[in-house]
Amino acid sequence: MQIIADVGGIPGKDCRGFCKYCYFRKVKDGDPLGCKSCLPGTFGCEQCTTGVRESKNEFIPPFMVINSVKTSMMMGNYGEDDFKINISGGGDVSCYPYLLDITSAFSQWNIPIHLGYTSGKGIDNPQMANDLISHGVEEVTFTVFSTNPELRKTWMGDKNPQASLDALKIFSENCEVHAAAVILPGVNDGEDLRKTCADLEEWGAKAFIMMRFANFRNQGLILGNEPLIEGVTPHSLQEFDELVRSINQEFNLRVTGTPLCDPENNTPFALAKDNDKEYLDILSDVTSEATIISGNVAGPFIEHIFDIMGASDLVNVVVVDQDISCLITQKDLEDIDLNELKETVILPGRAFVHDKKAEEILCRDGVDRIVARGPDKLSVDGEMSGTLSQEDVLKTELIAFQDLIEAINFFGVRKK
Ligand code: SF4
Ligand code: SF4
After folding, report:
1. CB of residue 295 inside a 6 A radius of ligand 1
2. Are strands 113-118 and 84-88 parallel, antiparallel or unpaired?
3. 126-137, pLDDT tens digit by residue?
4. Which of 68, 197, 310, 344 is packed most tightly, with the most Cβ within 10 A?
5. Average of pLDDT values for 265-292?
6. Are the CB atoms for 257 and 210 separated by under 8 Å?
7. Closest C-alpha to ligand 2, atom 1
């Protein structure tokens, strides 16, 4: 159980300048995307306008961060052993000017601390790692990118790359370190990636999260910011899957990938794997007809799962050209061939489309379809998956699929 200590921060601004590969680079102000929280009569709210761009989230004063953790602790029932304070924000916690002040305050409560996301760019002196450890930091999620300081300097804009790497080594030797890297083809893949993993293994890091670089709209750059880096073609989903699996075999690290591939837990969609098929028997029967809209990663898995359940005559999956289903927008819906849709359409819960707009687009051929939302998530992402047991993953997916089936049976046209 982790209590979030949100220190705020704006990507690029509060992490000493943009990394060249940062998802938030080149984001422009723009029209709201619309989302599930929109009130029926309004279009565009905090979440889908500034929230998704993380453009208004200034650093929060330390006393407010400390007070909000205190309040959460008083309201929750936190007696368990596995309890931590997770310090994270929109920028980079190592750049938060009061990081040592808040960890020092937390240390008085004797609660272990997780540095939720740091790129290390705020570390000018590796001694900072020792200070943080002495304040109770036990877990660190650290974007390494590469253990070659030159590459950190060029691609992350890290002014003191050696200090950051020395700090990472100290963290790895003393805490549970989840190292992360956005994988840029021709830059930090290939030999450099192997060297980085070998260093992490030697220093004692526990896990390595590989993030596929996104450069195009259909890879998730939905905020008018493609391409991030001219001329770079990121790994295809299949290439990336293979790369994650080979790194996992070569190194003694808990390797996971995002947007796909946890070779140990079989996520995303462990339920689609042959050896986990029997779990699907405990789900309710599908009794109604519906179309599920999904993205390139999840779509084929969902289709396969409904096939195993023997429900593919009732449920079809229409895959739009957007890798991550949560990032499906109005434009993706506009590209769908409406002939493929049944009379009930289920959208991903978190799709960035206003409900009314989705209905308008998906009924514009004159068919009066019901457009509803499914669960927010049907599986777990690579960052999460690496921290969960296989049992937890299966449980999470089963709960989500049960919710999805209930939505289909409730909103769909009844056939059984
Ligand atoms: S440190 Fe993280 S948030 Fe900041 S620019 Fe780099 S990738 Fe973006
Ligand atoms: S789209 Fe979502 S976030 Fe934006 S106003 Fe509507 S409900 Fe709010």
Report:
1. no
2. parallel
3. 999 999 999 999
4. 197
5. 92
6. yes
7. 34
